[in-house]
Design brief:
18 strands; 5-stranded mixed sheet; about 25% strand; 6-stranded mixed sheet; flat; 13 helices
Length: about 450
């Protein structure tokens, strides 16, 4: 009952604050503050004349609000020139293009970006955990206020300030540069823009909303890391790389032979058919190539969601480091089901894997052991593996031992807090042979401990 009341109160207060910040100019905010302050100080009208300030300020406010009822005649088109991607923690620059279709020049306008409603649902408010929430006192944890604020920021991705627009001549197009810093990965979904014009007193704004749906994907934060050196060898893949650059096999050409019923028509050598009128088939040799598996631990068992974000950032860093390698990289993780995405050698760009990581969410209803059958099924094709783990337990140990028995070189990164680090390192030394490369990393010191040397 208390949680529902707090949720409705926070949701209503968010809408009220949004209305207040857009309708009142900075001068109007001072007028409202003056009304409250002078009203408190001037309660006793027999001993002070401060109440006159209250009356005068209130009159100004009412007059301004009445003037704001006059129609705001603005016809304009808003378009954003957005980059293809942004990166969490790095500045993002884009341009807002505004075309004035009104019959008069427009001056003194202010633009507010409209994004998809960032208010979380009731269930996410109860199930989510703010980073370091365990450090807050019992009252803050009970009222959920700081968790609400964190979810608002997470859904909004970045802070958008009001943009003061230059004069808009009739039928003119202007471009206004905007710079923001996204702090969270995911999609920034723009729903339009709100253009405000203050009344003649400069206290209350008249608003004009213009719809324009656009979005930009914010990729996870990345660090400059060197790809791990794995003593891996090429593995035999029957049939080569299917669907590498076109439908069919991408094997190496060997020879020609006569057509046999059942042969794929796409392998017919048409030049020979044109000369001899006989169907001839191209034969291919199966390929050997290097294929790496990037195993991502999405199973969040602890309350600190910052550990999960660190796992995603490390995985993104290694994907970016493998961009120039002539190999295939498979990204394996679990969500509502088991997922596998590949890049390299015609199977897709590394940016595709980063797009996947930009929208990945923690998995709370499965365990790391659910990945074992998937890894075991493709173990014969894997030349090497990179595992990013958020902790160390029986499932992580089983995956590492499986790679050891199969002779697959592995590079393992395990996230650990400072208080658990020494104990975890001792346990890992007991569970895994020294031949397996394992790095225990603090979530707040990723660049220092994994960065380029």
């Amino acid at each position: 009952m208390l949680a529902k009341f707090l949720y409705r109160a926070y949701a209503g207060f968010y809408l009220f604050r949004l209305w207040r910040t857009r309708h009142f100019t900075p001068a109007g905010t001072l007028v409202v503050a003056g009304i409250f302050l002078s009203g408190i100080l001037g309660l006793n009208m027999l001993k002070t004349t401060v109440y006159q300030v209250t009356a005068f300020s209130f009159s100004l406010l009412v007059a301004s609000m009445v003037l704001s009822l006059m129609p705001f005649k603005l016809k304009a088109i808003v378009n954003r020139r957005l980059p293809e991607y942004a990166t969490a923690g790095e500045p993002m620059e884009y341009e807002i293009e505004i075309t004035n279709l009104s019959s008069t020049n427009q001056k003194g306008l202010v633009l507010y970006e409209d994004i998809q409603d960032p208010r979380p649902g009731f269930e996410p408010l109860l199930s989510a955990r703010e980073p370091f929430e365990h450090r807050r006192n019992a009252w803050d944890r009970k009222t959920l206020y700081y968790r609400w604020q964190w979810l608002i920021q997470k859904n909004r991705k970045a802070r958008f300030n009001a943009v003061n627009l230059p004069d808009l001549p009739v039928n003119a197009v202007i471009r206004v540069p905007v710079k923001i810093i996204p702090h969270f990965r995911g999609k920034i979904q723009f729903t339009g823009a709100t253009i405000a014009r203050p009344d003649v007193l400069g206290i209350f704004n008249r608003l004009k909303r213009i719809q324009k749906f656009q979005q930009v994907l914010v990729l996870p934060r990345r660090y400059p890391v060197d790809p791990p050196i794995l003593a891996s060898s090429r593995k035999f893949h029957p049939g080569g790389i299917n669907l590498a650059s076109s439908i069919g096999n991408s094997d190496e050409f060997m020879s020609l032979r006569y057509y046999r019923p059942g042969d794929p028509l796409r392998n017919i050598h048409w030049k020979t058919f044109a000369k001899t009128s006989e169907l001839v088939i191209k034969e291919f040799e199966d390929e050997y190539f290097v294929r790496y598996a990037l195993v991502l631990d999405t199973f969040l068992t602890q309350e600190d969601e910052a550990v999960f974000e660190a796992v995603v950032s490390i995985a993104s860093s290694y994907i970016a480091a493998f961009q120039n390698h002539d190999s295939i990289l498979d990204l394996l993780f679990a969500g509502k089901r088991m997922y596998s995405f590949s890049s390299g050698r015609g199977l897709g760009r590394p940016e595709r894997l980063l797009e996947v990581l930009a929208c990945i969410e923690p998995c709370r209803d499965k365990s790391i052991l659910d990945l074992v059958p998937v890894l075991k099924a493709g173990l014969g094709k894997i030349s090497g593996s990179i595992c990013i783990f958020s902790g160390w337990d029986q499932g992580h140990r089983k995956i590492c031992q499986m790679f050891e028995r199969a002779g697959v070189p592995a590079f393992i990164v395990v996230l650990a807090k400072e208080k658990d680090r020494s104990k975890m390192e001792e346990q890992i030394q007991k569970d895994i042979s020294p031949a397996t490369r394992i790095r225990v990393v603090h979530p707040d010191r990723i660049e220092q401990e994994l960065g380029k040397r």
